[in-house]
Automatic annotation (TrEMBL):
Alphabetic keyword roster: Hydrolase, Signal
InterPro entries, per the entry: AmpC-like, Beta-lactam-related, Beta-lactam/transpept-like
Species per Swiss-Prot/TrEMBL record: Pedobacter agri
Organism superkingdom: Bacteria
Domain Beta-lactamase-related: start-end pairs: 43-330
GO MF term (any one): hydrolase activity
Protein name: Serine hydrolase
Cleavable signal peptide: 1-20
Length: 444
């Protein structure tokens, strides 16, 4: 549900010509074994070809305490914003049934919302409403980790001005999907969890997908962890705050059944699916789906991210390949994992990365220690050596470990961060997400 987890962008390079070949499951095993062996991820993964699941695996643990429980194909994960796909499907089901239309105004159900008479269901689905984001726009990011009644959530949205006029721009907003979850309940007179069960889960025989369960009450639910030397517990979003937005529990196998059923017309009409999967630009959102470019192919699907879980599900019509990832412990970029799985599944050249870090002495690490500043950025970066480990810490944030990959180059795979040091010039370059920033080391 966090905006940082929304886009998956692959670089176009060359045309694929190996759609018909078998998927190399041994190479997939080798890649996931390396992730597991180097503590790069804990989670479950699956691949389907022409709607048939041909590969499943799990790494690490669904829970580390009080008892260690290995992750398995039955482990359920919080899928974050992939939940929005389910909400969008049920909205389109009501449209197919004539109970709602894309032009229906928000004022019919929530007249207290700003400019509700101008905001349509179309705007809510496509993130063009202009509504504030009740998850990401609040100053206190821990606010969403504590329980809030529906009335308070609605009031939070209603009291804030729009970011822009409805339809003027496209900007990701969790608020639109919260409202659509409530609209589903108003129209049908049934709870969201029951609608999910009857309209999707039972219809396509999903085995491990549920909604409206509070944190860690599901029998098979994976607990979230963050890597700081070891896996550490995370306080995640309080999921009853985000029903219809990012609370659903599911598995990679169920997600593959879902996205393949969606793409083949089992859940909604062809006309509605065409609306869901129409994009205004290469990087834009459709109505509950995002476009996913991968070399010559363009797939559809969605990403999901909570404070402690990460997920993705994508379907590529050209090759018939669909993949799903559900992760409760991430110490390597999810984007890189998904690219690797797609490369292997499409028969492209792939070499498993060497995840092992260079070994440096405490004295060698101390040479990089210090406070680094960039006058254009509102924070400092503190680099410190602690018991043979080098850590980085931005002002006001938690410290995270960085690993040496070559002389003067360190990385933190969990956030896709690379730090390059020039000790002679007392400079550090931070690279992340295709951007780079140069910091100068402060004198003691």
């Amino acid at each position: 549900m966090r905006s940082a987890a929304i886009f998956l962008l692959f670089t176009f390079a060359f045309m694929l010509n190996s759609f018909a070949q078998e998927i190399d499951t041994k190479k997939l095993d080798s890649f996931f074994y390396a992730l597991k062996d180097q503590n790069k991820s804990m989670g479950s993964f699956a691949v389907a070809k022409n709607s048939k699941i041909v590969y499943e695996t799990s790494t690490g643990y669904s829970a580390l305490s009080p008892d260690s429980i290995l992750a398995s194909s039955a482990t359920q994960y919080r899928i974050g914003s992939i939940s929005k796909m389910f909400t969008a499907v049920m909205i389109f089901q009501l449209i197919d049934e004539g109970k709602l239309s894309l032009d229906t105004k928000l004022s019919k159900y929530f007249p207290q919302m700003p400019r509700a008479q101008e905001i349509s269901i179309r705007n809510l689905l496509s993130h063009t409403s202009g509504l504030m984001d009740y998850v990401n726009d609040v100053v206190d990011k821990d606010w969403i980790t504590n329980p809030h009644p529906a009335a308070e959530l609605l009031d939070t949205i209603a009291k804030r001005k729009l970011h822009f006029a409805p339809g003027e721009k496209q900007q990701y907003s969790n608020s639109g999907y919260l409202l659509m979850g409530y609209i589903l309940e108003k129209i049908t007179g049934k709870k969201y969890s029951k609608l999910l069960e009857t309209r999707i889960v039972k219809k396509i025989n999903l085995k491990n997908t549920v909604s409206s369960i509070a944190n860690n009450l599901g029998k098979e639910e994976a607990k979230p962890y963050r890597m700081i030397k070891n896996w550490n517990d995370i306080k995640d979003i309080y999921f009853p705050n985000v029903i219809g937005v990012g609370d659903i529990l599911s598995t990679p196998a169920d997600l593959l059944v879902f996205i393949n059923a969606l793409s083949t017309g089992t859940l909604i009409s062809k006309a509605s699916y065409a609306q869901m999967s129409t994009f205004n630009g290469r990087d834009s959102f459709g109505m509950g789906l995002i476009s996913v470019p991968f070399y010559s192919q363009v797939g559809v699907g969605h990403n999901g991210g909570t404070y402690g879980s990460y997920s993705a599900v994508y379907y590529f019509k050209e090759s018939g390949i669909s993949i799903a990832s559900c992760i409760n412990g991430l110490n390597y970029p999810l984007n890189d994992i998904n690219i690797a799985v797609l490369q292997i599944s499409n028969g492209m050249p792939f070499k498993t990365p060497n995840f092992k870090a260079m070994q440096l002495t405490a004295e060698e690490l101390k040479a990089y220690s210090g406070v680094y500043v960039n006058k254009m950025l509102p924070f400092k970066m503190t680099i410190a050596e602690n018991n043979g480990t080098l850590t980085a810490q931005a002002t006001g944030q938690s410290a995270f470990p960085i690993e040496a990959v070559s002389k003067g180059v360190f990385k933190f795979d969990g956030a896709g961060i690379v730090l390059e040091f020039n000790l002679e010039k007392k400079k550090m370059t931070l690279k992340q997400g295709g951007q780079k920033f140069i910091f100068n080391k402060q004198d003691n």
